[in-house]
Amino acid sequence: MIGTAQKIAIEKTKTSKITSVDFDNLPFGSVFSDHMLVCDYRNGAWEAPKIMPYQPISLDPSAKIFHYGQSVFEGMKAYRDKDHNIWLFRPEDNYKRLNVSSKRMAMPELPKEYFMEGLKTLLQLDRDWIPQSEGSSLYVRPFIFASGRGFHASPADEYKFIIATAPSGAYFSSGKVKVLIEETYSRAANGGVGFAKAGGNYAGQFYPTQLAVEKGYQQVIWTDDNAHEYIEEAGAMNIFVRIKDTLVTGPVSDRILDGITRKSILEIAREEGIPAEVRKLKVNEVVEAAKNGTLKEMFGAGTAAVVSPIAAFGYRGSDYDLPQLEKSYASRFKKRITDIQYNRSEDSFGWRFKV
Amino acid sequence: MIGTAQKIAIEKTKTSKITSVDFDNLPFGSVFSDHMLVCDYRNGAWEAPKIMPYQPISLDPSAKIFHYGQSVFEGMKAYRDKDHNIWLFRPEDNYKRLNVSSKRMAMPELPKEYFMEGLKTLLQLDRDWIPQSEGSSLYVRPFIFASGRGFHASPADEYKFIIATAPSGAYFSSGKVKVLIEETYSRAANGGVGFAKAGGNYAGQFYPTQLAVEKGYQQVIWTDDNAHEYIEEAGAMNIFVRIKDTLVTGPVSDRILDGITRKSILEIAREEGIPAEVRKLKVNEVVEAAKNGTLKEMFGAGTAAVVSPIAAFGYRGSDYDLPQLEKSYASRFKKRITDIQYNRSEDSFGWRFKV
């Protein structure tokens, strides 16, 4: 166990890459900061975390990550305010969810100190990598994967917990997101791993998403695998709709990720008196509402995408445009959340976490 | 494109590990041969495969395999007969299935020559690693994973195709396999990736399998995720039952892997005049047959496990023992298949492939 940040050994880079980065034109998640945190699980215990220069990882070809997809991750963002304070958004929720995911994937849970102190120490060291421009942030990726060896299809005996960070711009390069309601492919099974941030959940979405992209959509909205009757989630985002003035989103389940942005939106709605319903949402209800003009908004919510208004959705060969509202719920939630994240407003919820 | 084995560059090991291996006491898939084949996909094309000493792989921490589980694999075995000829079993079917899996995981298909010539060259080089004792073989693991960088949840731009091999004993250390018919957790969704040999399919099974192991079972028999009404597969094996004298197995689907041992058994049954039915198999039918004594056998079929008789199954808190038959279908199929694999019999099917 580690008690304080001081106990994390730090090996600093000799040559910072920071001057080579164009902070005004940041892509998403493809430029990496100088350092990373690495922590090995061996002989039934997590060893002390170390911070070292961002560098390649060496693994045996039989490491189970390559063969059996045993991995979990979290997505977070670090923000810097005008006074150069560093902030995270609800990091303990990421910590809890990481362990929920790990349990489902038969992976060892991580002690809280390793996660929280590791984050703080790494972010303080690489603080200059946190962008300050609007819409940019330091994307923080804690992940755990099976490094133990062997071709037997069973849990590994060794794991690596790593935190790597990437100064990033917007997740969607275009502001206008057009989605396809999917009825052939599925993301998750009842009793499966859909609620976990497990690696394999994402690879399975790539091919159906490619097919949707070929038809002119950016993302797929997944429906239940049984009858494709209900809206589930969008893979990297939970989905909200606004019918008349009521906000609706599906309940979390063993198929649907318990998104931190999703639940923050529900809490803001409650506080602001926006009528919100968490209930199973039929595709038919959304299509009917689009047809009769009561569907006012549709948006995705997730750490990477924040709040992403959906401009149109496709269903059974038809496209349905969403109205462009002056005062949308999406922009209201986005402003409220990002104002808290960047320390531009009060935080009555206690979500902001000072690093 | 490569045309012949000669074009595969070979870097031989300077120090063979073979003398350190106890070939009379081989575990499954945890001792690795001297060499491996590595082939990189970059800039939209597969580069020439190389054979090199078995060694660690170096990857960027943002390699998509760690984050999004983009990986596929195959399981094969190489056999050596008394005249030291090397044999594979239906390798072209593994090649085809690898590409079927890759397509579903949005990964590039591999040219046939790379797979077949790569296998042959590697196996000839490491021929002394192929065990000759009954029940042992060289387990061959071709796999492809996403090595390309980036935290964006989208397909990688670089991949590695590797073939590694491991001299191996039996997959199940005990001959008596007891399975649990699962009704809470599920392996695959309709429209999902269950038919693919994709890494994430396996990690998702570990936790439910651990729970079953704690209750005294070795494996889980998966049922459909909708109502848990039908027998699907066992994760590393397809499932067969024998009711009276009729063999029954479920149809392959987008949830069930098209097993090579499975289809070989069906072909043998057809040739030998054993009545066989490929149809949806209700859990209730199996339980009823166990109760009224018409359930004669239950066995798993897969490359690693070959044909594994199931001694008992658990369902809703009760255990059902299977009879111990003198002349079981399982032993008949196992003998027929392994006789072909080890070149101890004629091969009227044309399944044996000389390396």
Summarize the structure in words:
- Two copies of one chain form a homodimer.
- With 355 residues, chain A is α+β, with helices and mostly antiparallel strands.
- Chain A folds into two domains: 5-168, 2-Layer Sandwich (D-amino Acid Aminotransferase, Chain A, domain 1); 177-340, D-amino Acid Aminotransferase, Chain A, domain 2.
- Helices cover 24% and strands 27% of the residues of chain A.
- Chain A contains seven helices and 19 strands.
- The first copy, chain A, has helices spanning 64-68, 91-104, 112-125, 199-214, 260-272, 283-292, 329-341; strands at 9-10, 35-42, 45-46, 50-53, 57-59, 71-73, 76-80, 86-89, 137-146, 159-168, 177-181, 219-221, 238-243, 246-249, 276-278, 295-302, 306-315, 318-321, 352-354.
- In chain A, the strands form two sheets. In chain A, strands 1, 2, 3, 4, 6, 7, 8, 9, 10 and 19 form a ten-stranded mixed beta sheet that branches.
- At the A-B interface, strand 5, helix 1, strand 9, strand 10 and helix 4 of A face strand 5, helix 1, strand 9, strand 10 and helix 4 of B.
Class of secondary structure makeup of chain A: alpha+beta
CATH superfamily of the largest domain in chain A: Aminotransferase class 4, branched-chain amino acid transferase, N-terminal domain
The residue-averaged pLDDT of chain A reads 95
CATH topology of the largest domain in chain A: D-amino Acid Aminotransferase, Chain A, domain 1
Distance between the termini of chain A: 20 Å
The largest sheet of chain A, given as strand count, sense and whether it forms a barrel, is: 10 strands, mixed
EC number (chains A, B): 2.6.1.42
Catalytic activity (chains A, B): L-valine + 2-oxoglutarate = 3-methyl-2-oxobutanoate + L-glutamate; L-isoleucine + 2-oxoglutarate = (S)-3-methyl-2-oxopentanoate + L-glutamate; L-leucine + 2-oxoglutarate = 4-methyl-2-oxopentanoate + L-glutamate
Protein name (chains A, B): Branched-chain-amino-acid aminotransferase
InterPro entries (chains A, B): Aminotrans_IV, Aminotrans_IV_CS, Aminotransferase-like, B_amino_transII, BCAT-like_C, BCAT-like_N, BCAT_family
